[in-house]
Specification:
homodimer, alpha+beta, 9 helices, 5 strands, 14% strand
């Protein structure tokens, strides 16, 4: 299904090019690319929300929430189940795919903490056990440290068709 | 202005609660929380896009793109300038705030690479100079390593009003 949602846009009616077609960021945004999706994931990740009513407290409209939860299930981010002891109840549980959104949520929060939190961070993410503060980082597999956007380049990977890779700009180093 | 866009929703007509009000992820999503915003930032970060036409190749509708670029300037993510030698031309340049979205973009791409890229990653992010592969990570200030969402807890920070902090669940650990 993820494929089904990503593929129809390739060469589609909107005239999109490789920039947003053969790009995992674009594909990811097709699944979680609006305001509520990451807030729903965040509430499931950190507030233990599983039931429709748990997510309602985000202030999201009922129809939008239902659509998002259905979409998450279809995309493999959540699974739907009914507890054996309460078969009339529906729970939405993050899958491994959904739980791995934690990196995106923490990175987004850190950016908001830095630029949109004049009173200081509303919440801290802390490490189970040691209680240390958790922050997002970019790590280089070779030398370990990445200090900012200026140090990041983009290169074609195995999933980039050759004719499109040839059109990618070569940023030098 | 960022304040102006974040504050009106507090206790606003939509009945939102602290979940999406006093939360830097929610504030960040108010600025970059739809599909195109991060793709525009990504194109500026990694493809050197500065002019309206550069961003058009994303396949975004003209009116939507104009709105997003104006929004980015209003939010402090980009600045608008005209080159002295070409005063009729407008360039959009990422600010420091905008450039720091790199962590969010790389985290989102990595998630898409893992779950939505059956042919392998379309692109790699590499480190200027050493050429090493760049990956997102979560780092604990105390012990260094964070292995997954299960190890991440949320705690009230200085920007959380006390009466709302008291309502936050204590997830133990």
């Amino acid at each position: 299904l993820l494929h089904a949602s990503a593929s129809p846009t390739v060469g589609g009616v909107l005239g999109r090019t490789y920039d947003n077609e053969v790009c995992s960021a674009a594909r990811a945004l097709e699944v979680v690319g609006e305001r509520w999706s990451l807030l729903i994931a965040r509430k499931a990740l950190f507030a233990g929300a599983t039931r429709f009513g748990d997510f309602r407290s985000l202030g999201i409209a009922t129809n939008v929430l239902a659509g998002r939860l259905d979409g998450f299930v279809a995309a493999g981010i959540m699974t739907r189940r009914s507890p054996a002891e309460r078969p009339e109840q529906t729970e939405y549980l993050l899958t491994e795919q959904g739980r791995e959104l934690v990196t995106v949520v923490v990175a987004l929060t850190a950016w908001g903490d830095r630029w949109l939190a004049p009173d200081g961070p509303p919440v801290h993410y802390t490490h189970t056990g040691c209680g240390g503060r958790i922050a997002p980082a970019l790590v280089c597999a070779d030398c370990g440290e990445v200090h900012g956007a200026d140090e990041v380049r983009v290169r074609p990977g195995p999933g980039m068709p050759a004719h499109l890779a040839a059109r990618m700009p070569d940023p030098g180093d």
